[in-house]
Amino acid sequence: MTFCQDIYDMLCRRHPGSKIYVIGDHHFFHKNIIEYTRSEFDNIEAMNEHIINAHNEVVGKDDIVIFLGDFCFKNSMIGPFCASMNGHKYLILGNHDLGSLEKRYHSLGFEGVYTTPIKINNGFLSHEPLIKGEKNDLTFQGILSEFVNYDGGVNYHGHIHENCGNISAAYINVTCEAQAYKPILIGETPNIKTTNGTSLFINTGEFEKACGMIHKSFCFDGKLLLDDYIYSMMLESLTSYYNQSFVQGSFGLCKKYGYISSFSDLDISCFYDPSKSKNKNFGMLKTISDEMYEHLKNIDGINLEFFKRFSNLRIFSASLARDNATFSKCYSDMNLILLDCYRSSDFLDLCGGTLIEKFLSKIDSSMLTDFCFPRFHVQTLKPVGDISNLILQMLFQEENASKKALALKKLHYVYKHAIKDEVLENFLDTFIRFFLRNVTLLASWGRTGEVDYIREQFSNLHSLIEHYIRTIPEPLIGQIYDVLTNPNSLFLEVYEELISTPLEQTFDSCTKIMRKLK
Q1: Model confidence over 476-497: pLDDT tens digits?
Q2: CA dist 442 to 7, 192, 492, Å?
Q3: Among 380, 411, 412, which residue's Cα sits nearest to residue 393?
Q4: Residues 6+ apart with CB under 8 A from 359
Q5: Is there a smaller number of Cβ atoms within 10 Å at the N or the C end of the chain?
């Protein structure tokens, strides 16, 4: 078990090409600190002004600064001071930052607030020094043990204002008095054009050359290679949120089964956990989509634009334009979905990389060692989930012949390439939950016309099934027909209960049924 969270990788994703600074114990608005250790100042106004000026002399607007506690002293006027200080701000709480201040820091522009020490590579960052006897709680003692046993570790700390020299070579006191009120540099994140010092392949002149080689050898569309690369970078940024999200849609089918088609967008669902507050769930969705947005800035020539930024839905486009021409336009469609809709058994691991890397391994593998390619490890649905989704699209999507035909095409492809034992595993349970999930999503988005259309299909269900049943893969017909037409089917019981409630109560009705099934 690791007690000390290392935030370096997160900082690299959020703020590529930035310097990292640390400093502690600003004590803004703390009148008595002047008497204790800052006698050079006549009053708190002079002290506050001097600290801000010293900060901005060192820290640039795109740099990262981590404050090691005791930022201010119980004052409601701190907002303008935070805004006037350069850099992306992170804070480890000190003994003067607890209580109501702890809650306020999140709203004052701090991008991360930590209650325990954190780590950046070999640097252990804390408010109090990591020494025996400083604190007795389990977490602090665990972090202290990790630090003591870490070869070459350095503890950057504050808290000590008087006699503020370093305890030993392994400790650096960064309290304001010890550093002339100026943050000290402890590292930096890699430049946006590179990952771990290696150039992103898409940013090099070799990318277009490789696309030409692949087209010549395999007659493969270069635009699909480009789209696949961009969507794979999106998945790479999602890897850090493995337990909070999953991938579906046509791009997911490509990575799971080799289904190659135009990718209209990348469908990502994040779990809405009803045990947490709405704000925490909405905040998680924002954090994940914003990190994906920032990650794509690594690509030269990329233009990013949000279309929708709602609390439960975030959609943005990523256009790649070079030499005044747009080569690719990709979309990320990210939504919140009730955790109650899913079981852990619904998912499998999806690990991989880009199509261009796959093809190059067969043509010229030397390119693979010189450049950086996206790598992802995410969750996705098992085949029974994909089968259920595609049948639901065929039956309950508003009349659109081309979309229904595409769903049927995908259904045949998934069945052909999936492991047959998994195709109908727990089909009834999965189909019911995914049906309720779809209705819940539409209701939460206010798309009452589509919800009403689904409700109306109950009376037409038998004729709908008779129309489509002979078009699906033959081995699926028997079980699917029984689920949808047997008078004793649990699906029909759930469907009937849903339509028995008023339209405006659809969302509540779905959640109630799902929890009852659970």
Answers
A1: 899 888 998 899 999 999 999 9
A2: 37, 38, 20
A3: 411
A4: 210, 214, 217, 218, 220, 225
A5: N
